[in-house]
Structure formats: structure tokens, C-alpha cells
User: Fold this.
Amino acid sequence: MQITETNATGLKREYKVVVPADALQGQIESRLRELGERIRMPGFRPGKVPLQLLKQRYEKSVMGEVLEKTVHEGSHQLLNERNLRPAGQPKVEIVAFEDGKDLEFSVAMEVIPEITPVDFKTLKLERTVVDVPDSEIEESLQRLAKRQRKPEAAADDHAAQSGDVVVIDFVGRVDGEEFEGGKAEDFHLELGSGMFIPGFEDQLIGLKKSDKKTVQVTFPAEYGNKELAGKPADFDVTVKQVSQLKDQPIDDEMAKALGADDLETLRKRVREQIERDYTLAARARLKRVLLDQLADKHDFTLPEGLVEAEFEAIWKQIEADMKADRLDAEDKGKSEEQLKSEYRDIAKRRVKLGLLLSEVGRSNNIQVPNDDLTRAIISEARRFPGQEKQVIEFYQKSPEALNQLRAPIYEDKVIDFILELAQVSERRATPEEFRKEGEAA
Assistant:
């Protein structure tokens, strides 16, 4: 096999690969002989079918198989011999091939740039440790108690108040016509919960059991269903029951209902969960600052193909958001040209950081242990109760899906490696200070 470099501009590499006709023909005949050991033909014993007869019947199909194998193996040999690390899938094209003549194919790619990471020991970062006061634990317990309240039927003459639960039948109409999703029976609605269209719940306050009322509201302009957005609607409502939510004492009984042995055990669990949440949020902020520093301190040529693929993925989502009117407030009012420029910069940043972290992981032999991957699969399976087995089998059979699950774990391990080397100081903060800092970021 003869390899000739035909282009080496920037990160782009192109090669011409020539496989001699006799080498190709030798592979074809070898494959035909393998088939001859298994194929049965009338008049011939197994393994005794003449090569010429095998050629007449099977050479075309075998030629395609050998051609594909030769191109695949030749491409891999090229990468290994030239020590190439492609940024994405190489583009392989057959340039010339005729029976009895040399096979010529081309291989084009962009390669991973040379990356020299900074000395991570020079990085200075600050990790926030949030001191959780007892008052926040108690507030959390109060929220749990509120969710544990049970409705009790009120007297028939009780007028519904904010915080009560009403059981209603309703039929909604726009322009006098019923619409999909606008009808329900025995619907439980907590007044003041904000579950319904603004103004709907307010108009039920004061109603009693068996009362009927036509509620008039207007769908918000940004309502998800475009056919209803901004339109006035009438709902014929019948109140079938008014219930009052009975307060749940914060005690051992509530703790047992939530799976704890007693209130103190529940309080401890709540504290641990809140502290865990703050720790994760603080790590996310620390990671963001670290990535900002890494992006600022590194400058290398980016593979155009990776940047374009990343930008196309981002822009596809932006187009969907524009169509559904889900654009962030800061993006609304910007021209398409301006948005494309900004999101292309985001694509470049993602590619830069992705290549950098990948290089750090590769050069330091950072791996994702099977135990970590197994835990991730189990965690993902738990998100689909009743389908855990199918989810696990899906990941076992799909290398691509498994790689998508592995990627964030790998990234976190690389981040941890860098943080171990960096100068990371700790600063304590109250929850209020922590939240304000997040809003200002």
C-alpha cells in the first residue's frame, strides 16, 4: 500500500492511498477459497469447488466485501503510520477502481491541534462553603409539612377561600366552541396555587358546594398553544366539593410518613440534603470560573469541522426556540446575524474547552471506571420506573448512548484532576450571600 500526502494546510490533511491490483486480487481469491470450504455445489465435494467456478458466481459480491475491508484497514493503517489524531470522522472516497487495476482512494480530515496546557498550579480559584442555619432546616420541614396536608370536606355552606381545595367540573370555550384540553370532571384544584390561567382561581373564591359559575379569563399572549394564546375564554364551572387542608404537625408521625424513624432523623436528612445541594451548586460555580480561566489562558487553532458541527447543533435549538417563542429575554430583539455571531463564539468556546479537557485526560491517563459507568446507568434506569431492564439493555447494546453517558463523568474527573493541582482557597458564606452572588453572576 502506497500513501502520499496531498494536502497539509493548517489542520487539514489529505492523502492518496494506492493498493496494488495483485494484492487486492490475492485477497479476493483468498476470500473465495474460504467460501469454497463451506459452499455446497452439485457435483462437487465440500472444499473441492474449482476457483474459476467460484469466481463466476461470487466474485462480484466478494469484491465489494474485500473493497470495503481494504479501504477500512488502509485508512486505519494510514492513521497509525502517520500518528494522526483526526478531529471527527475522516472522509474517505474511492477515486479509481477497475477490475485488474490498482485501487486508489483518498482520505481527508482535520487533525487535533497541538495543545500545551498551562501549569495548573498557577490557577487561583475560590470555593464557596455555605453555612446552613437551623432556620433553613425548619423552613424546609415546614414546606414538607405543607405538602403532607390532607384535605377534609368543609361544611356545605363554607365559602371557598385561598388555600382551600375545590373539586370541580368545567368546560372551556373560545368563540363559543369547546377546545381540546379545556374540559375535565372531578378536578382537584388548590385555590391560590397558580395552576390555572391567571384570574381563573380568583373567581372561584367565595363559591360553595353545588355553586355554578361562568369564569371569564384571557389566555396569556405567551401561552404554549398558539391557537389559544391571547384569546378570551369562558369556562362553565360546577363546584362539587370544597375541602380545607388540615395542617400537618411537624412531629415524629410526619417523619415516619416520610420514611424516617423520628423527627430528629428526618431533620438530619433534610440538613444533609440541603448541604449537598449547596455543595453541588458551589461546585458548578467553581467549575464555571475554572472553565473561564482555561478558555482565557489557552489559544490554539480549532478544527473548522468541529466548530461548524457544534454551531449547527446550537443553532438548530435556537431556531426551534424562536419558532416556539422560547428565546431568552436577552436574545429577543437581536438580529439573526447578531445571534449567529454570538452563538458561533459559544460553539468555538465549547470546542476549545472540549479539546483541552480531552488532551488533559489523555495525557494523564484519566479513565472512567466501570463501576462509575454502572452507577450512571442504574441512576438513569431509575428515572423510568417499570422500564429499568429495558433502559439497562439499551445502554448495553448502544455504544453511542453509553459514550454520551460516559462523557460528563469523564469531564468531571478531568476537572477534579485540575482542581487538585490548582490553588483553591475556601470562603464561607450564608445562603443569602450565596444566592445574591449567583444572581449577580
Summary: The chain has three domains: 2-110, 150-246, 256-440. The chain has a mean pLDDT of 91.
